[in-house]
Design brief:
single chain; about 475 residues; alpha/beta; seven-stranded mixed β-sheet; four-stranded antiparallel β-sheet; about 35% helix; globular
């Protein structure tokens, strides 16, 4: 696959002897990974600016992933027997209801969840967190949230509840001592002023940084709070273990999405304690999640997961997540992590050696993403060049993690104020951005080689080489190729 592969003998990620050699990576991919995806998805071709067609390389997997082939087939077959969930007595309704309900058990087992936890479905992770935030807002106390969160794990809390924002270190890392100081500062206050919930990402969408979620959970429980982990950027790459309820490090709540773990339809999942949800009025209400309404409009409710499952659910989305989980388990999460880390380590080592490239992570705790910039280039232009001239998909922007971007780009308070003023007038061009390459299990060493070659060529060519061929929208900052 490549003649350039030579893993560093002093890799800081793991001992060199434990890393897979190139031929082993190729063998693992061909024997174990390739059969999991359709030939059409793996060999999808796109037309570049020079008129040639090339195989598309997806390095934007932090956004969404290609579905497993057998999952697509399974869902298509299920559609032939599709019926209403929890609604009918006919065979199709029974079959679909059984599959839908069984998916909860598969999900629960996947994260080693307590049997006392509900598995609640939503449109996506964002809706799942909004649902949790709505219910938590009805309880006294404050939410402790970090400044490295994706907007989906920030805005639902900020707009519904009283929050205390924890400022991470300059590199975005967490200090357990500083968080404990926050808990201590609030513990002797009134119930309304105490910390009731700590919420944090399982892995950063922009750097891949993984906060110590289990140590944080133990800290939260020490001060009588609960722990909420947004694991939608983690669970498809590494094992997430909610742990037993009597374990001080257990995760009380987790949320994630199927579309980031090789399942289509975008369904989200929220897991949390049965007693919490039974003690809360449902986030949404309507047909199907209540058994009876009296003549006087008195609402009778379920004390099951159905109370939080209004309307006709996205049964195929839930079933798809369950099937994706089974495929991931068969492949092995440890093997997935080892393979992906090998690709990222290979790419990181060579990317940071390209003149003019700045990688925004140190490399001592690599995950599944590499954030970087090229000197003199707007990151959004680099992403457009990669797509239009090399057939490589990455993403550039703020990734809904504005404070983390400000940390990485050293944006001053004065600059932040200027950007905010521009945004209020409709100009988003100068919102700080970064380029992100994010990896998945179907990526290969050949993908990494093509990506590295492209970045090297772009950096060598320089900005002036591309300016005659691309134009930027002065309001949005979006770059587009100029038709020849």
């Amino acid at each position: 696959m490549t003649d350039t592969l030579a893993f560093s003998t002093n890799s800081r990620q793991e001992p060199a002897q434990s890393l897979l050699l190139a031929d082993h990576l190729d063998s693992f991919w061909n024997q174990k990974i390739r059969p999991l995806f359709t030939d059409e998805s793996l060999s999808f071709r796109v037309k570049t600016r020079n008129g040639k067609y090339v195989r598309y390389i997806n390095l934007d997997n932090g956004a969404t992933t290609t579905p497993f082939a057998s999952l697509k087939q399974y869902v298509n077959e299920m559609l032939d027997t599709y019926g209403s969930v929890h609604r009918g007595s006919g065979q199709k309704s029974i079959i679909t209801t059984q599959e839908y309900d069984a998916s909860r058990d598969i999900i629960r087992k996947f994260v080693n969840s307590s049997s006392q936890n509900y598995v609640i479905f939503a449109k996506n992770t964002t809706e799942a967190i909004n649902g949790a935030a709505t219910l938590w807002a009805k309880r006294p106390g404050k939410i402790l949230v970090s400044d490295i969160e994706h907007s989906s794990n920030l805005l639902p809390w900020v707009t519904r509840d009283e929050v205390v924002q924890y400022r991470t270190q300059p590199d975005g890392s967490v200090s357990l001592a500083e968080i404990e100081n926050i808990f201590k500062a609030h513990q002797n206050r009134s119930k309304a002023e105490q910390i009731k919930l700590l919420t944090i990402t399982g892995a950063s969408t922009i750097t891949g940084y993984r906060p110590p979620i289990y140590e944080l959970a133990a800290l939260a429980h020490k001060y009588g709070a609960k722990m909420f982990a947004d694991v939608c950027q983690l669970i498809q790459h590494e094992r997430v273990d909610m742990r037993a309820d009597d374990d001080p490090c257990h995760l009380d709540f987790v949320a994630f999405s199927g579309h980031k773990m090789y399942a289509p339809y975008g369904t989200g999942v929220l897991l949390g304690p049965k007693e919490f949800f039974d003690g809360s009025y449902p986030y949404q209400i309507g047909g199907g999640n209540l058994p009876y309404i009296t003549r006087n409009l008195e609402i009778k409710r379920f004390y099951t997961e159905r109370a939080h499952d209004p309307g006709t659910p996205n049964a195929m989305g839930a079933i798809a997540i369950a099937k994706a989980i089974q495929i991931i388990e068969e492949l092995g999460r440890d093997r997935i992590a080892e393979y992906e880390h090998s690709l990222v380590d290979f790419t990181f080592t060579r990317l940071q050696a390209i003149p003019g490239v700045k990688v925004h992570i140190p490399g001592d705790n690599l995950a599944h993403v590499i954030p970087f910039d090229i000197d003199g280039f707007d990151g959004r232009l680099v992403a457009e060049i990669l797509a239009q001239e090399y057939g490589i998909g990455v993403r550039a922007g703020a990734f809904c993690t504005y404070e983390y971007i400000r940390k990485l780009k050293n944006i001053s308070d004065e600059q932040d104020c200027e950007i905010a003023k521009e945004v209020e007038s409709g100009i988003t061009r100068n919102i700080p951005s970064i380029i992100r390459a994010s990896f998945a299990v179907y990526n290969t060493l050949e993908d990494c080689d093509r990506f590295l070659y492209a970045i090297s060529e772009i950096a060598q060519n320089g900005l002036d080489y591309y300016l005659p061929h691309y134009t930027q929208n002065q309001t949005t900052g979006v770059w587009t190729a100029i038709d020849r």
